[in-house]
Write a structure and sequence with these properties.
3 domains; about 30% helix; about 550 residues; six-stranded mixed sheet; five-stranded antiparallel sheet; single chain; alpha+beta
Amino acid sequence: MNQALILAKARSFTGKFRQSNAGNVAVIFAIAILPIIGFIGAAVDYSRVNNARTAMQTALDSAALMISKDAAGLTAAQITTKAQGYFNALYVHPEASGISVSALYTPNTGSGATIVMTGSGTMPTTFLKVAGYPQIDFSVGSTTTWGSAKLRVALALDNTGSMASDGKIGALRTAATNLINQLSATSTTDGDVMISIVPFAKDVNMGSTNYNQNWIDWTDWEAEAPDLQGSSNKPSNWSSYGPGSNCPWSMRTDGFTCVSGPGSTTAVSKIPSSGTNKGMICPGPDPTSSYGYAYHFLINGCYDSMGTSSYTHTWRPNSHALWSGCLTDRTQSYDTLNTAPVPGTTATLFPAEQYYENNESYCTTGNSPQLQPIIPLSYDWVNLKSSISTMQPTGGTNQPIGLAWGWQSLMQTAPFNAPAENANYTYNRVIILLSDGLNTEDRWPSYGNGSTQNTCAGNVGCIDARQKILCDNIKAVIDPKTNKPGYTIYTIQVNTGSPADPTSSVLQYCASDASKFTQVTSANQIISTFDSIGTSLSKLRVAR
């Protein structure tokens, strides 16, 4: 066969082979099976490595957070050992080998203390080793920074009479206690987190032992009752009233009657004719009613009957030592400011008052119920929680005084003189204001009667108007270190009544932003709301 014929036959065979499709799938599969198996095997091996890496990242993050609680006071070697222990307890991945973990601790020099943890390991392969890769190495890292910001929180908590219903006061005690536990757990050093507690009703209670302090305004305390100044409510034969005479006033007519002596709430029909209080004509509340001055406060003084047949009555203010500890709103416009009190400048001082309402002297030690005293900023967690456990429902609602004193408790000026802020840190200052009702009364009787709030110019509630100004003043403060608002305000309206109260526009207004106002409709929601706030505040203690 000649060469030309051979070439022709070869070309013909090649053409037919090229055109034939019989058996192509098997051929292609045979050719492709090895790389397909290789890719599937690689995916399985890489998936195993990724799982090991993810588990290591989670364990490392948790260990870094845990060691941040213990790092202060430990050496670098101790930190590494402890971090390794935490990691070993958390990382369970027996397929991985060659596990190595390191921890580097940098103390706080003003921008926060830092733990940098790194981990690495090796995962043996099953399929890739055929391709010459017997193992895959992996590594992860985690950084935790804390302590660059300290936390100061003021709890302004409604202790008014309506908190007795629907389980609210019990839920508040639980919620506030849980919050203290939550925030205190983020503190590594005393003072990292500090909390103040401001129970409020119409007044606040600063404690009767402070009666000698120069930041107290005794003007109203020492003055005659307004209705008794001059002669309008004194009998025409006033000079004939003395020891043994009938009380010259009627509760229903005059708004007060006579009591047995200075600071007493025991009504008497006759002026004492013997004993220490002989001839003392002491106007005071009638325990069986709540008219006039009895609704808000006691009258703190007596008329001393002098003479024998014609009596000269000298007004004698009660001793300051009889004060029960109650303070009312500061003189306007200081009621909306945090200006430090200036001895000698009366308007800047805090007015003393004998808060007496519903036949109760709410601030008096031993009274049940008692409006609990304010607790200044503290990290004495036991004492803070003890104070919360004794909170009881008392009088009417004055949210501005609770908010004002919450703000005041964060100040490094009298009356609290909070610890100075360390320039090496930033500070998160927080006020949490909780109330279960609308404002009903404050220092000014024309603003509300304890049941309802009166309206002022522009059809705005008088007390609400003062509160809005106060909130504006708090929000206007800028932290010079961060150039951000100096305070964060959370507000909570507990609205469990049926029918429910209107949504509080003033509480909405006072919150730092819409996300920081919460309205709850059941007592249990108080607990979950505080838990949510606590979680947000706790995150401020860990930067990343």
